[in-house]
Design brief:
With 464 residues, this protein is an alpha+beta fold. The protein has helices at 13-20, 27-49, 70-100, 105-182, 192-197, 222-239, 371-374, and strands at 240-244, 270-273, 278-282, 287-288, 297-304, 309-312, 329-333, 336-337, 344-347, 350-357, 362-368, 379-383, 395-397, 399-401, 408-410, 419-423, 426-427, 434-437, 440-443, 453-460.
């Protein structure tokens, strides 16, 4: 039997409007009230469906013999009595014929005896039928009363369900009004008073001056801001994959945010490594850091020029002697950067300016690291799978997830300097604190069983 949920008021939106003025009603309260009404209507309809079929008739097997109308039972009894009377009349006529045929009594004695037995059996059946009819009359009377009660209750529930349906429709209309209110159009300052006066929610924030946007004032609705935000943030939702403890794989789901990684990963996608605190970018093949090396200085020389001086060499103001070699030169005169070839040339360890300078001019000559030495070898970083200490263990196996296959693989550490090891947030020093080779990590001191131990392997390009 379906349990019917009774509707009830959960929250007074009228009191909320009186107390909070311009504030919109709480959405969670609206959702809760609407959910309650929907559940009440649904449970009522289920209960009604247990009694009434779609064609308007009662459900099958719902009415038994006990539910028959008393008049129907009387009709059945009368039919049985009529049949008995017909048989009795036939028996009387047979008796008359027997009396008229006394001469043939001997011939018909056997038939008369059989007929008497049949009549006796028939009368016994009639008595039994009358008893059954009497019992059926009692059951019919009781069930008729029960049917009347159930019919009245069903009618009451139908009225109640209709009332709740009307309430649900009113709630739906009000929710629709709130939705329209929250997504209202932009109203300029001239039309705002008339718009507010004709609104079903005159206390709502239909008009707000918006200054600083080209001098235009009016309401910018929640819908407008939602669309604008989607246009701004939408692409980031596709390319930014959130924070991970290890490089995400195509099709993998972030256990912290539920975001699913696209398959394939689009070049330019980024994720934040929660262990190394670095941002990584997918270049179409592997995850790399978006860091580039800037030129470094080999030497910085500073000369104070004499009147009309154009060449500079030897010791500068600090006694530093230039050693150019293959280093590019960067020259500034009184803080103004000069153009190589047009404003200066360098031959050997001598700087020559195209135009002479005034006395006291400061000439800064920077020798930079050669570009060939700046080209970094590619380094691929991999988060080592979870390392679990037990309080005495000092040797651990290093494994990682190969991004090309998505399968676990053993690390091939060539030097301990390629490995970042952190215990409880404290970086460990290669050599004094640990050694590593291949897939083996050896800690000088065993970490506690409850220690947080993790590692990152920085594999050089070309390494296996």
């Amino acid at each position: 039997m379906t349990s019917i949920e009774r509707p009830r008021r959960l929250f007074s939106f009228t009191d909320w409007s009186k107390s909070n003025g311009r504030q919109p009603p709480p959405g969670d309260r609206l959702d809760a009230q609407i959910d309650l009404l929907v559940n009440a209507i649904f449970s009522t309809q289920q209960a009604l469906a247990e009694i009434r079929r779609d064609d308007g008739r009662l459900q099958n097997k719902l009415v038994a013999a006990e539910t028959l109308e008393p008049s129907l039972a009387d009709a059945l009894g009368a039919a049985v009595e009529h049949r008995v009377a017909q048989n009795a009349y036939a028996a009387a006529r047979a008796a008359d014929r027997a009396r008229l045929a006394e001469n043939n009594l001997a011939l018909f004695a056997r038939d008369a005896e059989a007929a008497a037995i049949s009549a006796s059996q028939f009368l016994s059946a009639v008595n039994t039928a009358q008893q059954l009819v009497a019992k059926s009359e009692d059951r019919v009377a009781n069930l008729a009363t029960s049917v009347d009660v159930d019919a009245a209750e069903t009618e009451n529930w139908a009225d109640y369900a209709k009332a709740q349906a009307d309430n649900a429709i009113k709630a739906k209309d009000e929710a629709l009004q709130w939705a329209e209110y929250l997504a209202g159009p932009v109203v300029n300052s001239d039309d705002a008073p008339a718009y507010i006066a004709g609104s079903p929610f005159p206390h709502g924030l239909y008009y707000q001056p918006v200054e600083g946007y080209g001098g235009v004032a009016g309401l910018w609705s929640a819908k407008w801001w939602a669309i604008y935000a989607a246009q701004l943030v939408g692409p980031w939702g596709y390319y930014y994959l959130g924070g991970w403890h290890e490089p995400p794989l195509p099709g993998e789901t972030n256990p912290n945010t539920g975001i699913k990684v696209p398959n394939p990963i689009a070049p330019g996608s980024t994720y934040y490594d929660l262990d190394t605190n670095q941002l990584y970018v997918w270049n179409g093949t592997t995850w790399t850091t978006p860091l580039t090396l800037a030129p470094g200085f080999v030497q910085q020389l500073v000369y104070s020029a004499t009147e009309g001086q154009t060449t500079f060499s030897g010791a500068d103001l600090h006694g530093t002697v230039p050693d150019v070699g293959t280093s590019p030169s960067d020259v500034h005169i009184n803080g103004v950067r000069q153009i190589p070839g047009d404003d200066f040339t360098v031959s050997g360890d001598v700087l020559t300016l195209t135009d002479p300078v005034a006395a006291g001019s400061m000439v800064q000559w920077d020798l930079l690291i050669p570009s060939a030495q700046l080209a970094p070898g590619a380094v691929f970083s991999f988060k080592i799978h979870t390392l679990t200490p037990n309080g005495s263990l000092r040797d651990f196996t290093l494994a990682y997830t190969d991004p090309s296959s998505g399968m676990p693989a053993l690390a091939a550490v060539g030097d301990a300097a390629q490995l970042d090891v952190v215990i409880d947030g404290i970086p460990q020093e290669p050599g004094p604190d640990f050694t590593a080779s291949g897939s083996n990590l050896h800690l000088v001191t065993a970490p506690r069983a409850d220690a947080k131990l993790w590692a990152v392997w920085h594999r050089p390009a070309g390494a296996p």
